[in-house]
Specification:
heterodimer, A: 258 residues, mainly alpha, B: 263 residues, alpha/beta, 3-stranded antiparallel β-sheet
Chain lengths: 258, 263
């Protein structure tokens, strides 16, 4: 079970080079370059704030910051999934000619998007300060939540990347699914606003504990409940193991299918 | 000291029908139509392959197109998994299997050298240290910073070979790509291969250039439709291969007299 992790560690130089190459490629030839990574969530935030806070007059205080707390992790998650889904198919030219563990490819995608996420964190903190949000010790849990999300995102990306090699329409379907998933997660609205009879939808959504945890420690200055923490750990480990299993099981079919 | 050991190797490929991949939509539709996607036929591309290569030897694999040579090399390189049998490799193995092995077209030669070097097992520092040597060997000083998609096939091959040759490999697998270089570069390659043999490195080569095969190899393996037809000293095996080829051509009437006898 540990073998894939050992392989990834052995190939860490390659992962680092490919992540750097990925990030450079994204911004090569674009006018704003790296600035776009930061501008993108801000633009999203602006539009949603306009829509929900001004037009629809949501009762949530400090709406813009509230939104950002869930939006940044979501962008990391959804971008990893979308790009990860095609990572094996696109990396095919490499896989068919040279030996390296295929696990490297989705890992590179998740890591590249993670770097983008990290770049957005200073912006998040700037907004938190600007809106006069009280922050305390709970903020120290941030690395813990990030690690859990990394595991969750990686596991799911492994799964989707592997299956997408055999079913080529998954990336298309995924785009739509992620839109629904976004709105079913308490990112543009607080979880407390969901009527009792609909709460079960929140429970079924594995991304919810993460959003709630981020919001708890950043915005509300409280520790996430043990239930939420337990869910996060359970879901991350479970999805990571599942994803690894599926991926490792399918890996030898990649070179022939691509 | 055995470098590569292969025992009873077999590999099957699924025969791909017109629709090479399924989509979820088609999978669901198939369920409704109650049609099982035709149980994919498979064919055996390699069967019962057994041979070994001693350290420092150069083995050449010859055979007609489609006989399984490239597949065999890919199995040795770890790209395909065996269905039956065993492959044991002792030492660092690297492969030059297709033109532009591992090259990403949008990036420059320089960046691709780094990526390829690291994939072949060098550290970033080592790649940087040997970078100038690599570029000089490939003769690509002028275009090393241009995107690789602008390279000619010869340039691709030279760069790939240059990286592989400077990568501290114990075993080198080369698949039919040497034919692409010009005469000057071919000489460089042969010199390098000779140097490799002096240093005790192992080479497994696929080539249709029977003359150089005879010159370079210690042993030759003849693969025919997935099985080993002959194995042994270069001259003997190559002669048998040539005879067989001529015989086949006669039987199919390409060079034989019987077609024209009808009129």
């Amino acid at each position: 079970m540990l073998a894939p992790f050992r392989e990834l560690f052995a190939y860490r130089a390659l992962i680092q080079i490919l992540v750097a190459r990925d990030l450079k490629a994204r911004y090569r030839g674009s006018v704003l370059g790296l600035l776009w990574t930061l501008l993108n969530p801000l633009l999203h935030m602006g539009i949603y704030a306009l829509l929900f806070s001004v037009y629809m007059r949501s009762a949530t205080e400090r709406y813009a910051v509230f939104l950002l707390c869930g939006l940044l992790p979501w962008i990391w998650f959804s971008a990893s999934l979308m790009m990860g889904a095609t990572s094996i198919v696109e990396g095919g030219s490499l896989l068919k000619k040279v030996f390296f563990p295929a696990h490297v490819l989705p890992t590179v995608t998740v890591t590249a998007n993670f770097v983008n996420f990290l770049l957005g964190i200073p912006i998040l903190f700037t907004f938190l300060v600007l809106y006069g949000v009280q922050m305390g010790l709970p903020v120290l849990l941030l690395p813990f939540i990030i690690v859990c999300q990394f595991a969750f995102t990686l596991g799911l990306t492994f799964m989707i990347a592997a299956v997408s090699v055999h079913y080529r329409d998954i990336p298309h379907i995924l785009g739509h699914l992620l839109t629904f998933w976004f709105f079913l997660s308490p990112i543009v609205y607080p979880a407390t606003q969901v009527p009792e009879s609909y709460r079960f939808i929140l429970f079924l959504n594995p991304f919810v504990p993460f959003v709630v945890a981020y919001q708890d420690i950043l915005l509300y200055n409280v520790y996430p409940s043990p239930g939420v923490c337990g869910e996060m750990i359970g879901i991350s480990l479970g999805v990571l193991l599942c994803g690894l299993c599926v991926f490792t099981h399918l890996r030898w079919s990649f070179a022939e299918e691509i | 000291m055995i470098a590569v050991e292969v025992e009873s190797l077999s590999k099957r490929f699924r025969r791909q029908t017109v629709r090479p991949y399924t989509t979820i939509k088609s999978a669901i539709v198939d369920i409704f139509r109650r049609r099982r996607s035709a149980e994919a036929e498979s064919f055996e591309v390699l069967s019962g392959i057994t041979f070994s290569v001693k350290q420092g030897q150069t083995l050449s694999i010859i055979g007609r197109n489609g006989s399984g040579k490239s597949t065999l090399l890919k199995v040795l390189a770890g790209i395909y998994r065996v269905d039956h049998g065993r492959v044991r490799v002792h030492g660092r193995i690297g492969a030059l299997l297709e033109l532009g092995t591992g090259f990403h077209p949008e990036f420059s030669g320089r960046e691709n050298v780094l990526i390829n070097g690291v994939i072949l097992g060098l550290s970033k520092k080592e790649v940087r240290q040997r970078f100038d040597q690599i570029v000089q060997f490939a003769g690509l000083e002028a275009s090393i910073d241009e995107p690789v998609k602008t390279y000619s096939s010869g340039m691709y091959m030279r760069l790939g070979f240059a990286v592989a040759v400077h990568a501290d490999l114990d075993i080198l697998l080369i698949d039919e790509i040497l034919a692409v270089g010009d005469a000057a570069f071919q000489l460089k390659c042969f010199d390098k291969i000779a140097e490799f043999r002096q240093h005790g490195k192992t080479i497994i080569l696929i080539s249709h250039d029977l003359a150089s095969v005879e010159q370079l190899s210690d042993e030759v393996l003849w693969l025919d439709r997935g099985v080993i037809r002959e194995q042994g000293k270069p001259q003997r095996v190559i002669n048998q291969y040539r005879c067989d080829m001529l015989g086949q051509e006669e039987r199919t009437g390409l060079y034989g007299p019987h077609e024209s006898d009808r009129f």
